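GTP cyclohydrolase 1 type 2 homolog, pasting as requested.
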Amino acid sequence: MTKTTKVQDIVNIFESWVPKKLAYDWDNVGIQVGSLQQSVKKVMVTLDVLENVVDEAIEQKVDLIIAHHPLLFKSLKQINLDQTSGRIIEKLIKNDITVYAAHTNLDIVSGGVNDILTDKLSISNTEVLVEDELEKLYKLIVYVPKESSEQLKDALGNAGAGHIGLYSHCMFTTDGEGSFKPLEGSKPFLGSQGVVERVDEVKVETIIAHSKLSEVLSAMQDNHPYEEVAYDLIPLANKGKPIGAGRIGSLISEITLREFCENIKSVLEIPSLRVTGDLNQKVKRIAVLGGSGKAFIEHAKRKGADVYITGDMTFHEAQDAWQMGLNVVDPGHYIEKVMKQAVKSFLDSKCENAGIEVVISREITDPFQFL
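Structure tokens follow.
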């Protein structure tokens, strides 16, 4: 009998990449409307949860919407069905559609919105623009029969364990002897109940970043032959990678600000943008912060950016950047739509054997038109 997939199952998969803990305290991520216990056969990915998107989800018989921008951001004081916000909630509940949001955590996470934007714009050698903390690191020590050790090591490395600088699958092994006595009710891979078994084992040691912890431990359990896995997980004092908003890096070679702006429009498929500075100036070092990043102009300048790309730039902040010699490009907030394909691709890769269909919303949620 096929196991029914629940919202909770999809959330667990998604949060193995985009954990909620990365979101800022002021943000509202996770379940917005619905139930974690609801059955899921079809998932829709969207930037925003507007009424046209909900109507699209109803028409396509979607069970779960995963959005970047939270449907519920400010506290609700009423649900008035005569207003748009009330109608959206009513339609979701009546049609058994659960809504889940990943906002600043999807901006911050490795491979998230800002990394997608830098990849599309060919910005390389990137680092975090606004550092909030250093990722926690752990040492995993696991004991495995010698003949199963290579399979386990490969699985751990493929799940993200053993990353040190530009190297992956970094592990240390020690040969030894393990012993155990299977008790009543056990189903041992080796040995018999009531008899002490001695086995040639390997102790495998590796390092794990906190963001990969769930995925690595899951891979360990799935690829270990024992019914009960013996392992240690030890927090380390070593400093992990910086975690935070935005990215900064460099183009392959200098180009004019005008040429770079034209490239932004082409790659991100936008009709126009706003820009400050001398369009003939040569630029190379680029900072990017998807969404609204006017509060981080100083960070971009301090890290040596020639150009700062962000949305929702207001007059006085743009003026401040202009006066300090930092070129600002405002391509709008809607460029965050790049998250849709990335989330779909991730879920497709993880749910390919679960019979889950993942679709992208085709509805336009950008309120602006350009004349």
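Note for the archive: The first strand starts at residue 30 and ends at 33.
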